[in-house]
Specification:
The complex is a heterodimer of chains A (112) and B (114). By secondary structure, chain A is mainly β. Chain A has no helices and nine strands. Chain A is globular, with a radius of gyration of 13 Å. In chain B, strands 2, 4, 5, 6, 9, 10 and 11 form a seven-stranded mixed beta sheet that branches. Classes of the chains: A mainly beta (112), B mainly beta (114).
Chain lengths: 112, 114
């Protein structure tokens, strides 16, 4: 089962920051938080990941709470092309080796 | 990054037949996976494709229905056997870079079973 909880959908105005929350209260010490997104009819695209420190790349920022039980993906200036389903995933090595289990995700609608 | 191609990109098949989907990666990778995405749903992991040994299947998926081959580190196939309309889905191949922790997905194969 997925170990994360996300709101099913969110709206964001174009040009504004989109803040997508994720709860992962059962995360274990060696598990990372990953974010992917899936634009309609395409395979999922990697966005960012982190362990306990905040991370930033050219696409987004990831803010992880100090207790690591929740995180927020920030798209600083959302565009219409950011409309997609965003998946928050926790993943660590298990006996099967780095399996990624997807939850339902958050459907983000960026509106003009 | 890894570039993944899948063949076919889409197909329409008759009930009771089988379809083999191919996945080719442009670099050697350790971890390869097959996912299914039913209409309007999230991705469901079918199995981990192991090079040189039998695939590791997730709960609800069995080898007789979804036989998987992985003859080398850049190629894998997934067969959907004895298809029914419930098998209509997008099937995605995925690879994981253990060095960078990035996971890449193929474009998917859209299967429609009539």
């Amino acid at each position: 089962d997925a170990k994360t909880t996300q709101p099913p959908s969110m709206d964001c105005a174009e040009g504004r920051a989109a803040n997508l929350p994720c709860n992962h209260s059962t995360i274990s010490g060696n598990e990372y938080v990953y974010w992917y997104r899936q634009i309609h009819s395409q395979g999922p695209q990697y966005i960012i990941h982190g362990l306990k420190n905040n991370e930033t790349n050219e696409m987004a920022s990831l803010i992880i709470t100090e207790d690591r039980k929740s995180s927020t993906l920030i798209l600083p200036h959302a565009t219409l092309r950011d409309t997609a389903v965003y998946y928050c995933i926790v993943r660590g090595k298990d006996t099967g080796g780095f399996k990624t289990i997807f939850g339902a995700g958050t459907r983000l609608f960026v509106k003009a | 990054s890894a570039v993944i191609s899948q063949k076919p990109s889409r197909d329409i098949c008759q009930r009771g037949t089988s379809l083999t989907i191919q996945c080719q990666v442009d670099s050697q990778v350790t971890m390869m996976f097959w996912y299914r995405q039913q209409p309007g749903q999230s991705l469901t992991l079918i199995a981990t494709a192991n090079q040189g040994s039998e695939a590791t299947y997730e709960s609800g998926f069995v080898i007789d229905k979804f036989p998987i081959s992985r003859p080398n580190l850049t190629f894998s196939t997934l067969t959907v056997s004895n298809m029914s309309p419930e098998d209509s889905s997008i099937y995605l191949c995925s690879v994981l870079s253990q060095s960078t922790h990035e996971q890449f997905f193929g474009p998917g194969t859209r299967l429609t079973v009539l």
